[in-house]
């Protein structure tokens, strides 16, 4: 058995082997009984009715009623009728015989497919070439998309570069940093906001430190679960954490030790000894190598608690400062004078519709809810991962509306696409800027961190603790054979240990002030995911924001990653962009997210075929090297079902139908490349026949989920087709329709106003401009300006803050279309209901795909398997299969 399965529960393995043996026993017993029935029927070959009676009795005795959805109960009645009624022809009796023989063979096929499944599973557990799946692309939907082949000697290069960075301090100017940050809190509003920030942070630090015994059973459980959800510890140490979760006595002892550490936190040190903390390159879930420390389990739990309490408290404080103190700039509301004029010309009905419904309010709410400090968890039990974490949101957080990293990335992509459509149509021009930081957390300056912490009001006792955490004694391993490891211990002087909760705390705190600087200096929102940076909007503002980001980066000792930096400046056909100085201020390079590139001419998001097929060629090699058919399927599903489906961008109205068709065309070319003249289904069936000698495998066996006895191979064409007819055909045309409708709204409002009597106008004037005595209070100039209806330019001047129609369109473009309902039989509906009731065998997000599959293969399933499942679920070793499915599949390419 391969090393990847060595840690499986011995009981589960025994159960699996028992199921396999029981299935084989049933298969052999059924074959003997079926042959006996067929032999008995053959003896009465000259008596059709007797032959049918024997076959019918055999079917009833051998086939469990639950295994077939074919109703045979009436055959006995019609057979008895035929003894007396000559109108029942011989041909009908022959049909009965064929139907019964088919039903006997159906159960044979079901048991044979069950045996095949067991052989496939055994092959996966014991491949001829024992190799673990090497690198995860189980959830590698990181929107970067730029991978390159890794050779073994690159690991040494990575360690050497890491050493060159982290052991040499990067000194920054604390005074200069403090002065720069002070400027962000200018004026009375800023001073009060800063006072509030420092007061709340100081109180939080004191509260955390004074809680001398915070560890109890509830606390230790969320700490253990949080560590199991990230990549901080190796698998063997995670297995120990799993044991702790099951052992109440062990948890009690751990709580006692950790409470002792907390009570004496000022004297905390890394539990490293003379050997220091071993350092190793370790692959992350997205395929990247990261240099990780192999630290003590108790230290990991303790630091997770400290980090999560600081994370949650800091997020609350920083969000409150941003939301309530008035230091953040936004254009949600129009001025009172503008609002009064719109009330007068448009009437109260229109005015009420415009209140807090505009695009600006929608932008601000989305930014606050989904992008602002999105990496800081809102609750301590939400877990914490590294900056390259691509895992789904923790299950404990799902009920709180927290989006997974994957969902946030897709939302960011839709936001950029929607803003490009809107800004280009309404204003004739738009800029998009993309960047990130080079080795952000690995190379973060400690002096920068301490400067920011002190500026925020963190006291010196906590700074001393954070300094000990950051200055970990690292052991990079011997330079040459025979050299003692202790000679390689060095104190870290730069960067933050990966995958700790404190990593996010430090990273988000430093970049929070860049978010604020961009907002104040350019009146923009910086859309940030980890250290991935995006700007979209007016070119002048984007240029100012980019200059602000460059200044901030230089001040903080951060290095912008020029290879992932770029901008696109788009203008409408009738707009001439004259200010070349603005274009010169924007960074050069492409804007690309995943496999999508923003085309600088059309403004469309184009799939980068060259990058796609670099991955497809690598996928072909990995599939060819798969040691078993189930590992082949697992690799295929992880890539086709997850990686490509998200790096192409999830279909949405802002991309239009052309994007869906481009996805389908790309999948078509991928399949032609991987299976020349064939397809994935035919390839796997041929592979099964070559390895196991089993032919006539139903297509449904390839695609149905494991719970129905299939291999669960993902068909990449189904999801795009489920939304193809529902997605917006042309977002640009939809924007033009808005402009046409807007003209109509303006003209109707103008006509309605001009048809008002003078008395009606005076009443409206008094209602809007009355003073405290109820008298009309208005200047002569204002009164004169109200005599002429507002111009179209005035009507549209504030539409991003006031237009409910534009807000509705913005939301429509941001939407992912609901998947298409297809006509399904009652048999398919019942099958899906059973699946949904069976411990999460299928989810709501895959229901439409399951309907498509089952309806498509319904006829084949009934003919070849007698029902909607291929093998009885209780006969399959699905427990061990579920565990094996969690193994991370390897990209041989990394970012």
How do you describe this structure in short?
With 895 residues, the chain is mostly helical. Strands 3-2-5-6 form a four-stranded mixed β-sheet.
Low-pLDDT windows of residues: 1-8, 129-151, 385-399, 840-845
Helix content: 55-70%
Biggest sheet statistics? 4 strands, mixed
Number of helical stretches of at least 4 residues: 35
Strand order across the largest sheet: 3-2-5-6
Proportion of β residues? 5-15%
Number of strands: 13
Description of the molecule:
This is Reverse transcriptase domain-containing protein. It comes from Hyaloscypha variabilis (strain UAMH 11265 / GT02V1 / F). Helices cover 58% and strands 6% of the residues. It is mainly α and 895 residues long. Among the domains are: 3-125, no CATH class; 731-814, no CATH class. A four-stranded mixed β-sheet has the order 3-2-5-6. Strands 7-8-4-9 form a four-stranded antiparallel β-sheet, with helices on both faces. It has a three-stranded antiparallel β-sheet with strand order 10-11-12. The protein is globular.
């Amino acid at each position: 058995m391969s090393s990847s399965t060595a840690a499986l529960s011995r009981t589960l393995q025994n159960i699996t082997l028992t199921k396999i043996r029981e299935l084989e026993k049933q298969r052999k017993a059924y074959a003997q009984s079926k042959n006996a029935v067929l032999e008995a029927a053959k003896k009465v070959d000259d008596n059709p009715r007797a032959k049918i009676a024997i076959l019918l009795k055999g079917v009833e005795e051998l086939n469990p009623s639950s295994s077939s959805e074919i109703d045979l109960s009436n055959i006995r009645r019609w057979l008895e009728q035929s003894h007396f009624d000559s109108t029942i022809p011989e041909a009908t009796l022959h049909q009965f015989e064929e139907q019964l023989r088919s039903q006997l063979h159906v159960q044979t096929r079901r048991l044979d497919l069950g045996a095949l499944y067991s052989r496939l599973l055994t092959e996966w557990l014991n491949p001829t070439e024992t190799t673990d799946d090497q690198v995860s692309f189980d959830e590698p939907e990181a929107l970067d998309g730029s991978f390159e082949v890794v050779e073994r000697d690159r690991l040494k290069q990575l360690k050497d570069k890491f050493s060159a960075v982290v052991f040499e301090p990067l000194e920054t100017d604390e005074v200069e940093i403090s002065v720069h940050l002070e400027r962000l809190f200018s004026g009375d509003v800023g001073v009060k906001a800063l006072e509030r920030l420092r007061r709340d942070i100081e109180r939080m630090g004191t509260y955390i430190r004074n809680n001398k015994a915070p560890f109890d059973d509830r606390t230790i459980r969320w700490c253990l679960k949080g560590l199991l959800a990230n990549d901080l510890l190796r698998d063997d140490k995670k297995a120990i954490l799993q044991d702790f979760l099951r052992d109440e006595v062990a948890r009690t002892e751990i709580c006692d030790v950790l409470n002792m550490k907390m009570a004496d936190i000022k004297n905390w040190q890394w539990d490293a000894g003379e050997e220091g903390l071993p350092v190793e390159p370790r692959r992350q879930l997205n395929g990247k190598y990261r240099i990780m420390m192999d630290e003590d389990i108790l230290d990991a739990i303790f630091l997770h608690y400290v980090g999560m309490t600081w994370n949650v408290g800091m997020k609350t404080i920083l969000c409150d400062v941003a939301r309530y103190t008035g230091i953040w700039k936004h254009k949600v509301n129009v001025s009172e004078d503008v609002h009064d004029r719109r009330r007068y010309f448009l009437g109260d009905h229109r005015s009420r519709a415009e209140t807090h419904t505009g695009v600006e309010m929608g932008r601000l709410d989305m930014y606050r809810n989904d992008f602002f400090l999105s990496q800081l968890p809102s609750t301590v039990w939400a877990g914490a991962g590294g900056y390259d974490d691509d895992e789904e949101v923790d299950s404990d957080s799902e009920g709180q509306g927290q989006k997974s990293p994957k969902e946030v990335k897709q939302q960011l992509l839709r936001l950029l696409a929607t803003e490009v459509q809107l800004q280009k149509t309404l204003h004739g021009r738009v800029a998009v800027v993309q960047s990130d930081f080079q080795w952000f957390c690995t190379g973060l300056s400690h002096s920068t961190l301490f400067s920011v912490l002190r500026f925020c009001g963190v006291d010196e006792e906590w700074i001393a603790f954070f300094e000990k955490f950051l200055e970990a004694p690292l052991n990079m391993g011997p330079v040459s054979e025979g050299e003692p490891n202790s000679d390689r211990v060095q104190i870290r002087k730069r960067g933050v240990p990966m995958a700790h909760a404190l990593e996010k705390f430090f990273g988000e705190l430093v970049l929070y002030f860049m978010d604020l600087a961009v907002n104040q200096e350019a009146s923009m929102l910086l859309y940030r995911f980890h250290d991935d940076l995006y700007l979209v909007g007016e070119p002048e503002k984007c240029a100012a924001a980019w200059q602000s980001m460059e200044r901030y980066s230089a001040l903080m000792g951060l290095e912008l990653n020029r290879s992932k930096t770029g901008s696109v400046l788009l203008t409408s056909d009738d707009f001439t962009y004259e200010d070349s100085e603005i274009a010169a201020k924007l960074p050069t390079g492409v804007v690309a997210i995943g496999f999508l590139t923003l085309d600088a001419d059309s403004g469309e998001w184009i799939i980068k075929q060259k990058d796609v097929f670099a991955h497809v060629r690598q996928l072909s090699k990995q599939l060819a090297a798969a040691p078993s058919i189930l590992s082949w399927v697992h690799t295929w599903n992880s890539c086709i079902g997850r990686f490509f489906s998200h790096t192409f961008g999830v279909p949405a109205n802002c991309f239009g139908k052309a994007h869906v068709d481009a996805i389908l065309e790309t999948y078509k070319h991928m399949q032609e490349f991987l299976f020349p003249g064939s397809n994935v289904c035919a390839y796997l069936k041929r592979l099964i026949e070559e390895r196991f000698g089993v032919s006539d495998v139903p297509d449904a066996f390839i695609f149905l989920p494991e719970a129905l006895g299939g291999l669960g191979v993902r068909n990449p064409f189904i999801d795009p087709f489920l939304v193809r007819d529902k997605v917006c055909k042309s977002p640009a045309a939809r924007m033009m329709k808005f402009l046409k409708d807007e003209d109509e709204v303006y003209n109707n409002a103008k006509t309605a106003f001009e048809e008002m009597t003078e008395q009606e106008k005076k009443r409206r004037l008094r209602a809007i401009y009355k003073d405290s005595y109820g008298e009309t209070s208005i200047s002569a100039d204002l009164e004169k300006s109200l005599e002429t209806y507002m111009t179209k330019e005035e009507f549209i001047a504030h539409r991003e803050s006031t237009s409910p129609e534009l807000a509705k369109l913005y939301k429509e473009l941001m939407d992912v279309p609901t998947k298409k309902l297809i006509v399904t039989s009652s048999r398919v509906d019942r099958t899906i209901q059973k699946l949904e009731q069976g411990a999460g065998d299928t989810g709501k997000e895959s229901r439409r795909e399951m309907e498509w599959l089952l309806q498509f293969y319904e006829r084949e399933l009934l003919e070849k398997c007698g029902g909607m499942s291929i093998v009885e679920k209780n006969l399959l070793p699905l427990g061990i299969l579920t565990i094996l499915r969690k193994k991370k599949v390897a990209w041989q390419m990394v970012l």
